Structures are given as structure tokens and as C-alpha cells.
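Check my protein:
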Amino acid sequence: MARRNRRPRSTTTWRDAAHHNHNHTRNRNAPTAGQTALTAIRGYGRWVAHSPDTRGLGSALAALYPLGEIGHLTGADPLMLGAFAPPAALAAWVGTYKKHASPRYSATVAATAAGIPAWLGAAAHLGILNLPTLLAYSISATVTWSAYTWSDVLKKRRAWAREQLKWDELATAAGLEDSRLIGIDDTRLGVRFRVDVRATNKRASQLAGKGGGLAEDIAAQIGLPAERVRITADDKHAGIIRVLVQMLDPWAGPATHPAMDPAAAPTLAAARRSIMDGPFVIGIDPDTGNPMTLTVFDRAGGHHVFVVAPTGSGKTTLYNNVIEQATACTDVLVWGIDLGKGTIARFWGPALDAAAGIGEEKKALQILEWACLTIDHRSRETGGRNHQPTPTDPVILIPVDELDTLTGANSSIALKAKPMIEHIYRRGRSAGVELLTASQRGVVQYTGSKDPHANADNKVVLRMNRAAEMGNVVPEWEASGMPNMASYARGVKGVALVVDSENTWVAGRVLDLSDLDAVERLAHQRGAPTATLPAALVKGLPGYADRRRVPATSTAGGGGTGPAAPPPPPPPPLSGDDRRELDAAPGGAEPTNGASGERGSRIGHGWQAGFGIDPDDHDAVERLAGELVSEVEARLRDMPQPPKQPTSLADMIKAKEVLDNAENNPPEVNQNIPVSEKIAGPVLALLAERGADGATPAELTKAVGKGESTVRRYLAIMRDHKPPLIVGSGSTRNLRYFLPDHAPGADPTTDHGQ
């Protein structure tokens, strides 16, 4: 076996070993003088680092005193040392004022910088070992230290340090460790933090999103409702978020409209302005107290407005705000259409240039026709340049409430109204004809088409019933940090979200103009508009000159828009042709007041309805009845016979979807879609006339007289028919259509009918 090596035993006892180790450890751990001094210096440095501005300055002033004695002992030139005072003061002033823009702070730093060489020069001459010098230096140093410490810049730094500490505590509690506060602004209701989140390994968009829960966590730590903390990503830096904290309730105060003050109402009614003076103020932003504005027309041209507002959300109040300011403009005419409730015509009638109320579908169509004719007239005059509004050639604002009564799926006049609404939306912007349309939902069944979405620069969303409805108006609302109008300011009436064409938004409360009695008084005090249309334009607007023939007291939906004209004498019974002309007049009514008021009241629904006869004349009544029967029979004679088999609603919807997608359908699908002679006839006639020159889609649209989108769909169907009815050549702006015989490269000997 291998032998184990053993260490020799020491002769020292275990007691001696313990005593030796104890003394050795004590001697080894005993600090030296240098270590003690170094530890003291480090501790003092940490103490100064906690407040470098004040403690550092005090330490420097204390160390400066003995430096003067060194200059005295070495025999330094006092004048040479003192000569450095002016340039030091100038450099200190320029450097600090450029950075902080604080005269008090810069003066203190400049005086301190100048005092250092001045003190060294004085101490080099006098020495420091005398009472007057010590006393003078102590007083000067104390004053300098106090002035610097209590300067506005140092106060801001201390306040900022406290806010930074508060944010650090709040961020840690909310799970946002390692974030850094880089800015804080006081707002009307609280504060707004700018926070650098790059060190948190989280994206700003992730923290600002609704699913992150950071806003709710912060609100819980402060003790506020979740909706009073909002987080958005910074527009200029992807690593920064903005945290808005509303310490005060933004809805505590009322949003009263000036018209609600009886003393101010007459002044408001007499106030006049130009639409170019600025946007319309429709509410107040609770965060800033700034007005919430809506731009209808500015130097860039017109801006259509699309409002989505369910029942009871405050749409009437919003319209009252807009119309109140529009009717105060000297270069705006308002043509109101409200076939659903008649509110616009009933209460704003005296201040409007034209209006259509309940049961006045013909008048509504006529207003839309005037608008289209005005657009065409101005476009020809200006070549498409932006209209310049004047009192003699004003902007025309058409507020349409309940758009579905015009263009919706259940509207009886949708086929006539929709092409005109589309034309105004697409061409009215530069011509100074602007639409303000409102719908309960932002879907095609209510709007009739997608033009309000595509061509309305301004989107206004009022209180919504469901968050899903927001996406039908502003598809990217959540990603843009917009509030959810289904939950925004719960329990508060009249809230609105306004989004412009650049996706810039503001949310707040609409000014309270819900008292319709006050609105009616205001409209009467304001009176008829002062702006007028040019005579050349008026001549081209059928029935425009007679728009005020219905008295303001008419019960037909409140359609009256001004004082009634003097009543004409009762006319004799009219012939059939004259009666049809009268029935086609705006509103289909004649005024009756004054001496004939009794007669008008007896036959209100006959004479005023435009039948043009005296109901007391029995022969005239019988003759009219016979003519009406003959006319009805003549109209029914040309009507098509109903099909033997009914068509289900599902099949009708499917057929409409196929027709709407005609431009994207496969050719075999379009081949089964028939083309009406009213469409194909004008198209084929124009192409036959043009021959090898062909025609553009715009020219064919004008020839057919239908909407542009409708004609384009049928052109695609005619192109895909087998054999093709027409042939297209080119693309986009160069697209032209031809008959097959005249298409570029066609063989004239080919028989296309086979």
C-alpha cells in the first residue's frame, strides 16, 4: 500500500495559533490614513452629487477663499487677475441666456463668473488673514449662493426632479420600468407627460393601443376613471409616448351657446362675417378649452361634411350650430333638405334661401338639380379652378338631414336623387357647392353610395351605439388614437369626434343649441340671406325665382323660407297643360293670404296643393277628375306586365351584387346580364356616329344621362357580351370605346354578328 504523507505537527499550541491569527486579521483590516481620506472624499462627492447646483457651488465658494492667499503669497499681479472679470462675465451671460432665456439666472451666473477673478485679484493684494476681507467675502459668497439657488432655472430643475421622481414611482407601479420622463406640460385639466420608452423594450404603438392596458393601470394608481388617462404615440418620434392625465372632470362645466343668452341673442342675430374669415365653431375641446371647429370652405376650396349620428345623439344640435354660422355669412346661401322630420325648414326657414321639408320630395329634387346646374355653370366659367365666394356669387351649403330619405334603399326618389348627390360630392368642392349630409349609419343602405366616405373631407361622429359602427366611418380610428364614441364621456350628451382630410382629429362637446324655440327666434331675427346668385346663373335654374312663393306659415313640412308675396287674384280654371305646369312648380303650391285668406283656408289641401281650380266649381272638378282618370290609364297602359313567378329578395340582392361588381366580374358572368335599351341605345348611337374616333367613358356617360359608376358597369357588361357589343382600347385616361367594326385593328370584312 502507498504510504500517506503526513504534515509534521507544529510545536505551537492551539491557543497560541488562535491568538496569532486574531492579531494578524486585526492588523490586516485596520484602514490606513490614505484609505480613510479617500473614503471621506468619496462620501463628500456623493453628498455633492445629490444636489450639484447648490452643494457644488457652496463647495467651490469655500475652496475659493484659500486660493486668494496662495495668490497673495506668490505675489500675483492683482490687476492682471482682475482683468479676466469682464470677458468671463460676458461669456457666462451669453452661454446661459441662450440656453435658458432667463435674465435673472444669467445675471447671477455672470456676476459669479466675474467675481472669481475679481476676488483673486483683491485677495492677492490684501491677503485673507484679516477680518474685513473675511467678512466681505462671506457676505458676497452668501448672496451669490442664495441668488443662484433661488433663481427660476433652479426652481424649475427642482420641480422637474420631483416630477421625475413621481413618474418613476408611477411607471414602476404601472409596469413601465426603465422609461424616462423627457417633458411635461400643464393642460387645462391636468398634465401631459412625454415619456421615452425605448429602454422598456416595448413599442410606443403597443403601449398606446387599447389592448395594452397601460392607461387603465396609470388611472388606477392615480385614482381616476380609465377614460381620463389617454396614451398616444408621438408623431415625431417612434420611441416616445404622450400620457394625458385629466385631473379635473372635463364635463363639469356646461357648453352653452351664446344664443342661449337672451341679452346676446339680438347681437348674435345681427352679426355678419365671411366664410373666408375662418372655420365654423361647433363645440369646445375639453382638454384645452380651445374651440372645436369645422371647415366648410377655405382657400383650398370646399370641404364636404359627412355626419354619422344615431337617433338621440345630438345631430339636430350639431346642425343648428353649423346653420347658425352659415346663415350669418354674407357670402353663403343655405339650401336645407330634411324630408324626415322637417326640422331644418321649420325652424331655420326665414334665414334659408330654399328648403324642403316633409312631403316635399319634388322640391328636394329641384334643389339638388339647382346645385348640379350651379356646379356645371361655375366649372364652365372657371375651368375647374376653386370658386372665390362673394356676396353676389356665394358658396352654397346644402345640409341634408336623414340622407336615407334621399338616397337610401327605401327612398322613393333614390333613383333620381342619388346621381345628383354623387355629382355634387364629386364635382361640388371646387365649384363652391358643399354638402353636409347626416345618416344614422355609415353603410351604403343608408348613404346610397360610397361617395360620402370617399369625397367628404370632414367626418363627424356623434355618440354611437356600438363600437363596430366607428369602423364604418373612420376605418383607422383605433390605430390613430381616436376615442371610441360608444364609450367616450359616458352619460354626457352632445359629444362629437371631428376628423379632417389629413386624419387630424379633435373630440369634445358640441355647443348646446338644442332649444328649438330659441333657434326659431334667432332665425326670425336674422332674416333672409343677404347673398344673391348671379343673374346669368339664376336664369338657368328652373323654378329658382319662385322658391319663396310658399308662405312661412305653410304646414307642408315647414317649407316656407320667407315672407309671402302679395296674393294674386284667383285664376280661372286651367287647361290640362297649364295645370301640369303649375303642378311642376316648386312645392306645388300657391300663396293665399290677405283678402283671399278665408278662401285659402277653406280649400287648403286643394288650392294650395296646386290643383289650380276652385273646388266650388263643380264642372271644373268633374273635368279635372275625368282628365286625371285618362292620364292614369295612359300611364298604366305602357307599364310592363308583372312576371308570372315572383322574385325572391335574396335573388334580387344577389343580382344587384353581380351588377355592382360588373367591372370586376369574369366575362362569362357579365354575358348573362341583360342591358337595357335606355343604356345600350344612346351608347351604340354615339359610337356609330363617332365611327373610328370612338368615345371616352365620360362622353358615353353624358350621352346616357346616368351616373358615371352606373354607365361604367354597363360598358363592362356590353364589352363582355358574346359577341361583344362594344370594344375598349387603351387604359385609364386613354380608354376609348368603339363599335366592333371600328375598333383599332379590326377587319372590316369580319361579320361580328356570327
